[in-house]
Design goal:
Layout (H helix, E strand, L loop, with lengths): L1 E5 L4 H12 L3 E6 L6 H11 L4 E5 L4 H13 L6 E4 L6 H6 L1 H22 L3 E7 L22 H19 L4 E7 L1 E3 L18 H9 L6 E4 L11 E2 L1 E3 H15 L4 E7 L5 E2 H12 L5 E4 L8 E2 L4 H7 L7 H14 L6 H6 L11 E3 L2 H4 L5 H9 L2
Parallel strand pairs: 1-2, 1-4, 2-3, 4-5, 5-6, 6-11, 7-10, 8-13, 9-14
Antiparallel strand pairs: 3-15, 9-12
Helix pairs in contact: 1-2, 1-8, 2-14, 3-5, 5-6, 7-9, 9-11
The chain binds uridine-diphosphate-N-acetylglucosamine.
The site of uridine-diphosphate-N-acetylglucosamine (UD1) has 20 residues, from helix 7 and strand 8.
Subunit structure: Homodimer.
Catalytic activity: UDP-alpha-D-glucose = UDP-alpha-D-galactose
GO molecular function: UDP-glucose 4-epimerase activity
């Protein structure tokens, strides 16, 4: 079965691609590499020994999106299911530049759905977020909890969810699984793929790794006066590999789902910032100095999932504990202190001469870092 992963070169996308490839799916990635690197796909190929089809295309450009579907169909096996993770996710940035978020996230999703409709591919797994619960009044949070948004980013997810629900109402042929992620952390245990945020990270765990590497002097803990065990914010951290396996379960689900269904993907456990710091220190053997500062605007005290619907409906459950999350994160960080290597990535030519504008199928050599083309070829041969 062929699965198109839109945003497949990103943090979550690479883990989803790896899991799909390891489980016998034919994987095709569509990514504009705005926040990611083609080298990440090369790593997925190294890890899985499978060849991943890659198109550099932007979901904001409908013509590019439809060409990806057509190009795959022309090869004789059309795309069966789409996993849509192509979106921007920085809350603060979305407040400053809302139109960019609506354009990327909402317009991009509309184009993807339009193109899918056009070619008759009507099975979709969509990456949503617990952010759609807004300022949740109580945890654990069930899927039926009232929805609201506290930022343009959150609102973009809400609009897309509504658009997908309307699409399913308008045409009974559609099946959509909407996955609301809680706080994905960690990295693949191989140390080959992980999160590679550009600039200074906003999220807790990527920031902690910068402190452990000595690239940031101190972790700022946003508030210690919340009504929680130790006064710091409580979240539902889940291992990114567990999150990836939730996508596989959802892909199977949309095979015989009628209409749309929403699932929380979380562990159901709330963990505080200081507990996370402790776990990371034990797993890494590194000290993470921190100071307590003011609360961050827009943060809630406590947010964790009731994941029972995913358990019952998808047969999915998070399996990996905090020590796996932290030790896998540290392995990836130690081995890749500069992520996938931004400079090298930027020097690489991304356009294929003669390719139609807007959509660029990347070839093997472009995926491999200089001097490692043989590794990609080997990975592809191993299939
Ligand atoms: C954030 C977004 C959420 C988004 C998710 C994407 C906000 C308000 N929410 O979730 O919408 O879907 O990222 O990954 O931005 N913390 C610190 N110091 C730091 C960073 C974080 O103390 O330097 C604390 C926060 O106050 C919070 C916890 O760590 O209590 C987790 O923060 P973070 O990793 O940013 O995730 P969320 O805010 O839960």
């Amino acid at each position: 079965k062929k699965v198109l992963v839109a945003g497949g070169a990103g943090y979550i996308g690479t883990h989803v691609c790896a899991d799909l490839a390891m489980n016998g799916y034919d994987v095709v990635v569509l990514d504009n590499f705005a926040n990611s690197s083609p080298l990440a796909i090369h790593r997925v190929e190294m890890l899985t020994g499978k060849k991943i089809g890659v198109y550099q295309a932007d979901t904001r450009d409908y013509d590019s999106v439809i060409r990806v579907f057509e190009a795959e169909e022309a090869k004789g096996s059309p795309i069966d299911t789409v996993v849509h993770l192509a979106g921007l996710k920085a809350v603060g940035e979305s407040v400053e530049k809302p139109h960019i978020y609506y354009d990327n996230n909402v317009v991009g999703s509309i184009n993807l759905v339009r193109a899918m409709d056009e070619v008759g591919c009507k099975k979709l797994v969509f990456s949503s977020s617990a952010t759609v619960y807004g300022d949740a009044r109580s945890s654990p949070i069930k899927e039926c909890h009232p929805l609201s948004a506290t930022s343009p980013y959150g609102r973009s997810k809400l609009y897309i969810e509504e658009m997908l629900r309307d699409t399913c109402i308008s045409d009974g042929g559609w099946s959509v699984a909407i996955l609301r992620y809680f706080n994905p952390v960690g990295a693949h245990p191989s140390g080959l793929i992980g999160e590679d945020p550009k600039g200074i990270p906003n999220n807790l765990m990527p920031f902690i790794t910068k402190v452990a590497l000595g690239k940031q002097p101190v972790l700022k803990v946003f508030g210690s006066d919340y009504p929680t065990r130790d006064g710091t914010g409580v979240r539902d951290y889940l291992h990114v590999c567990d999150l990836a396996s939730g996508h596989l379960a959802a892909i199977e689900k949309v095979d015989d789902l009628e209409g749309s269904e929403v699932y929380n993907l979380g562990t159901g456990n709330g963990v505080s910032v200081l507990e996370m710091v402790d776990e990371f220190e034990s797993a890494s053997g590194k000290e993470v100095p921190y100071e307590i500062v003011e609360r961050r605007k827009g943060d809630v005290a406590v947010c964790f999932a009731d994941p029972s619907k995913a358990h019952e409906g998808l047969g999915w459950q998070a399996k990996l504990d905090l020590s796996h999350m932290c030790s896998d994160l540290w392995r990836w960080t130690e081995r890749n202190p500069d992520g996938y290597g931004v400079e090298e990535h930027l020097e690489r030519p991304l356009s294929t001469p003669g390719a139609k504008s807007g959509v660029v199928p990347l070839d093997r050599a472009q995926l491999a870092p200089a001097g490692q083309a043989g590794v990609a070829a080997k990975a592809a041969d191993a299939e």
